[in-house]
Amino acid sequence: MTLQSFLRRLYVFSFLKWFAPIWAVEKLFMQQQGLSLQDVSHVLTLWMIGMLICEVPTGIIADRYPRKWVLFVATLLSIAHFFLSSRSNTTLGFALSWLLYAPSLSLVSGTLESYLHDVLSGFGEEQHFARYWGRASSLTTLGSGIAIGLGGIIAQYSYQWAYAASIAAMIGAILAVLSLPNTPAYQHEGERPSILGHVGQGLRVLMSSRTLREAALFGAFLVAASTTYDEYQEFYLQFVHIPLAWIGIFAAVMGGIVALANTATQRVMQKVSLPMLALGATVAALGMAVFHNVLGALLSIPFFVCVTIGETIADSSVQHHATAAQRATIASLVNASKQSSIILVLIFAQLSERFSLAGALYLIAGCGLVFLLISGVDILRFGRQPIRSS
């Protein structure tokens, strides 16, 4: 298989795996089924705890077994999640469904980018990883954006149709991943350290590099804050009086803009730093909290642009600093830092109940300020280590 043929198939998988129209209104569907905002928050918290528990073990699995089949299993679990959610009408039913979704996302997290880097290394093209990963990430954002745009429209007729469209997309993703080439397991039976030893090696690599520490901190504060807002975005858009059909359209337009911006990551990664992007995201989040109208909603676009580009730069730094045998594990350790959103979701729900959704957005801005403070101290102590593009 040629590199271009591989990339086309990987891009199709990246697009379809996150093409889920139900995402636009899934929390609203949960409310329609009788769950309160607090119930929704509890379900999301259980899901994020599941993500945290699964993150590192699934990274080890992706280092020990062929990554193509790890992606295959992940997609099957997504289908199970959508099917069970569509049939649920209790908090317990939704909780079980979202607990299935946790390993589905964790199995992809760290695995997909490691799989791409493996194949690029086989073609001697690993120096262009940021370019190709930026395109794959952009297609992921574009796919979810288009799906969300359709989701609001479809849901006006039936939430079940939105679930059916999401399941159909996952079936397409399975066909795409089956067409991808196999790569070897990078740790064979005789070479495998214990699980704790494997994690310990990954942690030592992570903590020895200031660049990787910064990537983990960016995940713990900025990406986690972005995830938290994303989980409540449809409620915020309703709060600023955007109609249901327009919620999906707005999300689709925003996804398109973020996707286009992310394609430029390799060109800008030598000119911007993670603290610079964090500052832009923090200013935008403050604007979202202050302006309780369409302007506040529009400011979510630069917020997501800054965080998404920063996340792609952080992912690139991880891939360039890890060996093939530990690549998915270290990526999973960095991604595990993003699960601080478990705490943020709980706090966000409490603040929104006591004040308002807009008022709770000060929490998102505060995360950016904390990252800037910690990162600034780290730079003063150890100096700036540029993130390589090759």
List the topology elements:
Elements: H1 3-17, H2 26-32, H3 37-64, H4 67-86, H5 91-108, H6 111-122, H7 129-155, H8 159-178, H9 195-208, H10 210-239, H11 244-262, H12 265-268, H13 274-290, H14 294-298, H15 300-321, H16 327-337, H17 341-354, H18 357-382
Helix pairs in contact: 1-7, 1-8, 3-5, 3-16, 3-17, 4-5, 4-6, 4-8, 7-8, 7-11, 7-15, 9-16, 10-15, 10-16, 10-17, 10-18, 11-15, 13-15, 13-18, 15-16, 17-18
Question: How does this structure look, described?
Answer:
- The chain is mostly helical and 390 residues long.
- Helix content is 79%, strand content 0%.
- It has 18 helices and no strands.
- It has helices at 3-17, 26-32, 37-64, 67-86, 91-108, 111-122, 129-155, 159-178, 195-208, 210-239, 244-262, 265-268, 274-290, 294-298, 300-321, 327-337, 341-354, 357-382.
- It is globular, with a radius of gyration of 20 Å.
Structural class: mainly alpha
Q: Quote the CATH topology.
A: Growth Hormone, Chain: A
Determine Rg (CA atoms, Å).
20 Å
Identify the CATH homologous superfamily: MFS general substrate transporter like domains
What keyword list fits this structure?
390 residues; mainly alpha; Growth Hormone, Chain: A; 18 helices; disordered C terminus
Outline:
The chain contains 18 helices and no strands.
